[in-house]
Amino acid sequence: MAPSKERPKQTVSDQENSMHFRQSNAGGINVGLHWAWSNLIDYFAMDEMTEIQASITLYNKKWSAISLFLISAAGVAGGIWIGMVKSWTGFFIAGLFVRWLPIAIVQRIPGCPYLHVDQSGFTISNLFRRNTVPWSAVDQFFVVTIRHTGIWVRQIVGFNFVPSCHQLKKFRQFAKIIGKCEGAIPDTYGKKANELAQFLNERLEIARSNDPCYSLKARLNLALKFAQEWGENYGRPIQGRLRQACPNLHTEELDHFNDVARVAMECGYDLIFIIAKKRGRDGIWPEWRESYLAQYPWVDENNLARLFSTGMYYAWKDGVGQ
């Protein structure tokens, strides 16, 4: 269904539920926040607007593989010697160390072992076999100390899956050898184990800040996206669609998000009309963007572009700024 030529009118009920605008100190533009914004802050703490960093690939250091090989080889040789000279338990010790020899050899293959981290998750490559874990499947990362018969061998980074994750069993098989975790990263790729764990936890938090299941900013942008939809959802309440994306939200919270999204959308259109009347429609994007973000700093670039293009369409239809 094509949108009507008239801009959607803002619904104003009683004074308590109405939108209260105030004069902005910059530019004298009437902008404001709906009462629901204050209610939303009672439910959530405003997230820091952190941008996802570019993807990064980490490789292991040459000497880490050599050290692992030497330690494992020494353990195997020592275990065999103990088994032949003193006690059969030496063969058991050799068996514990021998499993790390193939890993050390594989790590010396050029370009083979690496850890790739991006916005969607992380990928572990070993012997040209790649396993990818999405951020949504991870609960947290932490340091795991590997010991053989009480002897410290090395530290790696382990992680646990979120309770709802029933996939990625291949990681759990490796983790069974180590214990104390449900998944593990087999190398630290030139970093200390605690540094790698901290780095991955930081990337996990950044990913969650852009996930509607965790982030207020992401929920607000998702609500604004739904509010701007055309077609069969044009002008319809967003609560049902938002509940599907964020099933943990209560009815009252959904109503608040709907109210804030509608007001944010209307404010974007109104700002375009005000600026276009003042100086025409050409070249108003920088001024509009700066003024709008001063009042709604949580709006992302996709919603900004959509708001501006739709608002300019309404301004053109109404002959504003000609």
What can you tell me about this protein's structure?
This protein has 322 residues and is an alpha+beta fold. The protein has two domains: 15-49 and 214-317, no CATH class; 56-209, no CATH class. Helix content is 48%, strand content 16%. The protein is built from eleven helices and nine strands. The strands form three sheets. It has a four-stranded antiparallel β-sheet. Helix 2 (62-85) runs antiparallel to helix 3 and helix 2 packs antiparallel against helix 4.
Topology (elements, then pairings):
Layout lengths: L19 E4 L6 E4 L1 H9 L12 E4 L2 H24 L3 H10 L1 H7 L7 E4 L3 E6 L2 E6 L3 E11 L2 E11 L7 H10 L4 E3 L7 H17 L6 H12 L11 H7 L5 H29 L5 H11 L5 H17 L5
Antiparallel strand pairs: 1-2, 3-4, 4-5, 5-6, 7-8, 8-9
Helix pairs in contact: 1-9, 2-3, 2-4, 7-9, 9-10, 9-11
